[in-house]
Inverse folding.
């Protein structure tokens, strides 16, 4: 069985290679090949899952060593896979949602001349992401980690002819590199501390080293997670990443890649358990991001950017849960999976709406779409109910558990973290209701399509008919089927997982689990969550449902304006990093030219000057040369005689 | 003694150089094919060397030794260790690509050919450089090494000064002036380094009485040859200075951007990927082997210089407007990593540094050669003159991106393996140095992606709209390099197997052991 | 006779020759002065040979003569061709061979 693990990665990798090197011959069939290979990966995953269910909880983990990767004295890095319950969960999520989104993209990218390459990149992403979750050591994980970064870079910048897309892609890669620096340092620390960086030996021997070292490793891992999962302070790339095609936003920037940070923290749970300081920082980062993303999400008029803020916020929940220790790990992963369903569904819904609306992304120019796009409305609506935590749907089960666990942390921290999580739930309900109302309800505020050149989002999925009002229509089957499947997941996954605590028991051998006991009782927390939900929805309805939505955004309060600009993070980056960096490099170029080179050139110039003077001695008159010869000889003879005399 | 295989690896390109130069001017194409065939034959010989080399065997293998100037103890002594084998194969591998990529670089100018461009001369000089570089990697006699270390300046000087890049923003006279400035700068820097080394070579002879690397190192290890501390340090500095100029290490680096900017792209590859490697190679073999104590004494300063090179080179690369100068500064940053790995004196660091030499050769060759193809199409080296190339020439852009990703050490490509080993090896002994060096990976991403973004993405500029994609010859040059980059990134074992024993020997020269991990983890 | 006197004569001849080289401009005269210096040296060599009682000095004198003969051949040729082009045998007129 374990020999199948490598095939999980190999299938999409093969697809990427074939599609990217295959040339134009594959333009007609390439997308189906890509989808097929994604499905193959899911199929293998399902077989392995069935096999795993047949075994006892303790010996479910499979291990496959392919070859020794970097054999250097004292440094053993293997290409080896480890498939345990945690990896299995991710494999199914990634390949499952991945296959659905491949299918969706067949319809969505139909009019793009570079569709074959798009599928190549998507397959590359799947391979890298599967490698990330299957690796049995941190270095191989790092390969997948940067591999998904590369795929994300390529896909955000897929429409490279748009400068904004190219810039967003570069920004995403760079910010991620800062996080990767953290992962590198963490691996180096592990190597010097434990002499290895394979999961097994490292995690089983954390007890033998000092807490300080573990805190350092933990914080560096957190830095890595912040970069990949768009957590404060490295969150700024995610909003810009929405420049990519919508299926990419759904797969990479909502359901899978951005959750890699959560995977990393949960996987390294033993390290964080042994270092309460690092763990607390994780929880704080999660709580801050949770609010940050939610506030940003409230102010955006761009439907994808509003959803991106929401993603940030939901991952904040997961990171918060991961920072709570054994009482939260399982719920972090559970929320991750349910979020994968409903957020991917929401993004696909958004893509479907944009498809129908001449690629308009501004929600102020939507309105009243529910009658024109019933399937999209229904699936998006179910996703919406799931994310706000409507009782009974997926989001409710996972988010409520996280809020309970936050309170159960105990002490002042518990109250603060729990309070923040509760507040976040209310804001989530607010901004998601806002998105829902602005898009599907109210008056039609449709605007004529702009020229293709000046379109705010150049998604060329649909033909532009400049100057015409959009004619909304339901999307083709390849697009609606994935949305329907994801909507099922959004509705039932959470309940299924919570039935008899099946999900927690499934993960327990890997992540360890303790029951958290909130100081005010679980039922009270659930009650508070429902109250927060109702409050959020109510305020949003009062603001956007009862009153007409203006087509041009009002100026808004200071907070609104700041939130529209991602709470000024970009401005800060621009002033401090970009400007500062430009000045630094410019002055260094000057220094290199005038100082470092100048010293050498100065030496050369002075030698030149000296020889220019000496040259005058060489006047071409044979007799003056003769004088110097005789004079020189006389001096030499005199010197010899004098020396001998002495 | 047996068959003189090592001599042959150098004699074949040397003879090829003479033959190529002798081809009459009218048979230009024949000269090109001859040069290519000779370089391929050399590659075959180099592969044979690698096959015959036994990683587990003696330190120096395939040795040859004959008296050359007996009165001064000078021998014609050759021998290779694993590091030498890796670099010989790299050199022999890259030269055919350099020749194929520069196929038309030395053709006579169509328009008003004022200057005579001796096509055969160009290829003959390349082969001459190859011969000298290979023998430098093989020499186990300090004097012999010195001779070829210096002699390779002559063909390089003519390659830089005589066959400049045709893409130049200024007038012809201006271009010629800049070209000769670059060539003279290259020559002067390296000559000064070489002269100081000559003094140290003579000093070594005075102290040791012969020039044999093996004998001196053995005598030192056995305690038979004592050097006064100051003598050893001075000699070390003399050697190190020459190698640091060649490598190049900050602040002796400024010749490289000029030379790489003015030379044609294939020659730039020859400079940075092949010739400069002699500098870092010699640090490992001569500085550490002959002067272990002094090497340890100088380590702190050298580490700081290497760190400055890494960060400074990367920052300057960000600020460049010229594609080739950008690559040159990126190389300075990478050489900083190599020196760092060598002087970290851990097995990971030194294995990493050796792999880095090979991988940097491959990645720079890929990036620079594609950049050369790009520049030859548009006739400009300025980044600002490009934009949207991706749309008109996707294959060119794709290969350029892969070269760039290799330069920024993306995992899965070969340079990642070496860069990570260097970082880990450095971190194990000097954690702060390791952490500062890690900033290099962020900066590398910055300059590479900015370059890609400005040249390849965005709206298509009018001047590039008719740009043809890669031709078959160009694709044949780039594709094998990319295959190698991926292959060695996924499976570097063949290389590490050859290199590891040599690194162990070098470490035992300097009597250093790897720092033990804090916890002996349960295996 | 005391052989030292020959040495005095050689020194005198050499000085005369040297002074001539420095003072005169005509290439032919200059040339003759050089010959005078060479012959002064020859005289000194032969004298030394006599004083030390071995043949080394005489052998060197022969070498000098051969060199002087060769020099005359080359030198005169140069002077003649110079004279043809510049219509002057003054060495100061031939000052163009410089950097």
């Amino acid at each position: 069985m374990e020999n199948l693990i490598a095939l999980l990665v190999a299938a999409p990798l093969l697809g990427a290679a074939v599609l990217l090197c295959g040339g134009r011959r594959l333009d007609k069939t390439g997308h189906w090949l890509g989808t097929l290979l994604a499905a193959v990966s899911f199929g293998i995953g399902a077989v392995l899952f069935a096999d795993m269910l047949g075994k006892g909880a303790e010996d479910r983990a499979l291990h496959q060593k392919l070859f020794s990767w970097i054999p250097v004295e004292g440094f053993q890095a293997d290409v080896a896979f480890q498939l345990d319950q945690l990896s299995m969960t991710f494999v199914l999520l990634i390949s499952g949602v991945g296959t659905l989104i491949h299918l969706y993209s067949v319809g969505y990218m139909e009019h793009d001349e570079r569709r074959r390459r798009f599928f190549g990149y998507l397959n590359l992403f799947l391979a890298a992401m599967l490698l990330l979750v299957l690796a049995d050591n941190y270095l191989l994980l790092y390969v997948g980690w940067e591999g998904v970064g590369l795929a994300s870079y390529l896909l955000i910048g897929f429409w490279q002819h748009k400068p904004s897309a190219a810039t967003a892609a570069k920004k995403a890669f760079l910010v991620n590199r800062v996080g990767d620096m953290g992962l590198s340092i963490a691996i180096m620390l592990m190597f010097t501390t434990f002499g290895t960086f394979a999961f097994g030996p490292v995690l089983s021997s954390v007890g033998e080293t000092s807490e300080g070292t573990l805190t350092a490793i933990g914080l560096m891992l957190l830095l890595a997670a912040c970069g990949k999962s768009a957590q404060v302070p490295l969150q700024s790339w995610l909003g810009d990443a929405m420049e990519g095609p919508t299926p990419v936003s759904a797969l990479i920037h909502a359901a899978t890649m951005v959750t890699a940070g959560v995977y990393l923290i949960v996987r390294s749970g033993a390290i964080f358990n042994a270092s309460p300081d690092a763990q607390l920082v994780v929880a704080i980062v999660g709580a801050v991001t949770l609010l940050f993303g939610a506030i940003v999400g409230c102010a955006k008029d761009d439907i994808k950017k509003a959803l991106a803020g929401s993603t940030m916020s939901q991952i904040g929940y997961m990171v918060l849960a991961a920072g709570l220790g054994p009482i939260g790990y399982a719920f972090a992963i559970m929320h991750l999976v349910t979020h994968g369903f409903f957020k991917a569904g929401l993004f696909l819904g958004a893509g479907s709406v944009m498809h129908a609306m001449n690629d308009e992304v501004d929600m102020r120019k939507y309105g009243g779409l529910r009658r024109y796009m019933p399937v999209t409305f229904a699936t998006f609506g179910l996703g919406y109910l799931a994310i706000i935590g409507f009782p009974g749907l997926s989001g409710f089960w996972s988010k409520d558990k996280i809020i309970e666990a936050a309170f159960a942390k105990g002490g002042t921290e518990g109250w603060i973290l729990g309070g923040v999580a509760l507040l976040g739930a209310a804001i989530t309900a607010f901004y998601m209701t806002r998105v829902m109302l602005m898009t599907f309800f109210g008056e039609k505020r449709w605007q004529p399509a702009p020229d293709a050149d000046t379109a705010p989002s150049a998604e060329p999925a649909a033909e532009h008919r400049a100057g015409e009002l959009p004619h909304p229509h339901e999307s083709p089957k390849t697009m609606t089927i994935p949305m329907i499947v994801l909507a099922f997941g959004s509705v039932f996954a959470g309940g299924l997982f919570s039935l008899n605590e099946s999900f927690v028991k499934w993960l327990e051998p890997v992540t360890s689990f303790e029951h958290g006991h909130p100081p005010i009782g679980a039922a009270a927390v659930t009650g508070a969550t429902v109250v927060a939900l109702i409050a959020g929805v109510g305020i949003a309805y009062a603001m956007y449902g009862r009153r007409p939505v203006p087509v041009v955004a009002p100026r808004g309060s200071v907070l609104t304006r700041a939130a529209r600009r991602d709470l000024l993070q970009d401005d800060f980056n621009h002033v401090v990093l970009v400007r500062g960096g430009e000045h630094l490099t410019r002055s260094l170029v000057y220094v290199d030219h005038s100082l470092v080179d100048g010293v050498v050139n100065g030496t050369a110039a002075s030698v030149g000057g000296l020889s220019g003077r000496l040259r005058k001695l060489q006047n071409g008159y044979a007799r003056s040369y003769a004088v110097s010869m005789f004079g020189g000889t006389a001096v030499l003879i005199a010197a010899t005689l004098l020396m001998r005399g002495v | 003694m047996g068959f003189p295989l090592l001599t042959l690896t150098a004699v074949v390109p040397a003879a090829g150089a003479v033959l190529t130069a002798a081809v009459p001017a009218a048979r230009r194409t024949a000269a090109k094919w001859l040069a290519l065939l000779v370089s391929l034959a050399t590659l075959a010989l180099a592969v044979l060397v690698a096959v015959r080399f036994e990683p587990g065997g003696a330190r120096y293998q395939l040795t040859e030794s004959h008296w050359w100037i007996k009165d001064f103890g000078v021998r014609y002594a050759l021998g290779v260790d694993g590091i030498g084998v890796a670099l010989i194969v790299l050199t022999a591998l890259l030269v055919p690509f350099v020749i194929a990529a520069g196929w038309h670089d030395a053709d006579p100018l169509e328009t008003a050919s004022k200057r005579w461009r001796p096509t055969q001369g160009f290829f003959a000089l390349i082969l001459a450089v190859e011969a000298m570089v290979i023998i430098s990697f093989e020499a186990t006699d300090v004097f012999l090494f010195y001779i070829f270390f210096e002699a390779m300046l002559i063909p390089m000087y003519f390659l830089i000064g005589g066959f400049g890049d045709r893409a130049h923003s200024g007038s012809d006279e201006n271009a010629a002036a800049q070209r000769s400035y670059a060539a003279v700068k290259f020559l002067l820097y390296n000559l000064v380094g070489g002269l100081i080394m000559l003094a140290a070579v003579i000093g070594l002879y005075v102290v040791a009485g012969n020039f044999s690397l093996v004998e001196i190192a053995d005598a030192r290890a056995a305690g038979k040859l004592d050097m006064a501390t100051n003598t050893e340090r001075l000699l070390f500095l003399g050697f190190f200075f020459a190698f640091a100029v060649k490598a190049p290490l900050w602040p002796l680096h400024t010749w490289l951007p000029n030379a790489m900017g003015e030379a044609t792209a294939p020659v730039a590859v020859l400079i940075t990927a092949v010739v400069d490697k002699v500098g870092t190679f010699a640090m490992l073999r001569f500085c550490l082997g002959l002067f272990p104590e002094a090497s340890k004494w100088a380590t702190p300063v050298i580490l700081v210089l290497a760190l400055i090179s890494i960060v400074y080179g990367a920052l300057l690369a960000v600020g460049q407007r010229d594609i080739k100068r950008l690559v040159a500064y990126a190389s300075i940053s990478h050489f900083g990593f190599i020196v760092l790995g060598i002087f970290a004196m851990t097995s990971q660091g030194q294995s990493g540094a050796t792999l880095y030499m090979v991988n940097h050769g491959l990645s720079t060759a890929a990036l620079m050669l594609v950049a050369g193809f790009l520049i030859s199409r548009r006739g400009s080296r300025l980044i600002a003159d490009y934009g949207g190339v991706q749309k008109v020439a996707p294959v060119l852009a794709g290969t350029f991106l892969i070269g760039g990703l290799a330069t920024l050490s993306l995992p899965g490509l070969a340079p990642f393996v070496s860069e990570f080993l260097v970082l880990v090896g450095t971190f194990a002994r000097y954690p702060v140095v390791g952490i500062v060096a890690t900033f290099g990976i962020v900066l590398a991403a910055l300059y590479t992606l900015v370059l890609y973004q400005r040249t390849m993405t965005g709206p298509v500029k009018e001047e590039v709209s008719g740009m043809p994609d890669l031709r078959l010859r160009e694709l044949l040059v780039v594709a094998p390099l990319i295959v190698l980059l991926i292959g060695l990134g996924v499976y570097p074992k063949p290389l590490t197997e050859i290199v590891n024993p040599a690194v162990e020997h070098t470490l035992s020269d300097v009597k250093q052991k790897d720092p033990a991990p804090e916890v002996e983890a349960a295996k | 006779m005391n052989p030292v006197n020959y040495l005095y004569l050689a020194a005198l001849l050499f000085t005369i020759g040297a002074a001539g080289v420095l003072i005169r401009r005509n290439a032919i005269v200059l040339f003759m002065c050089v010959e005078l210096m060479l012959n002064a040296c020859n005289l000194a060599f032969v004298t030394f040979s006599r004083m030390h009682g071995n043949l080394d000095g005489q052998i060197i004198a022969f070498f000098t003569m051969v060199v002087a003969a060769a020099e005359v051949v080359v030198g005169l040729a140069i002077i003649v061709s110079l004279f043809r082009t510049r219509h002057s045998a003054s060495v100061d007129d031939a000052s163009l061979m410089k950097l």
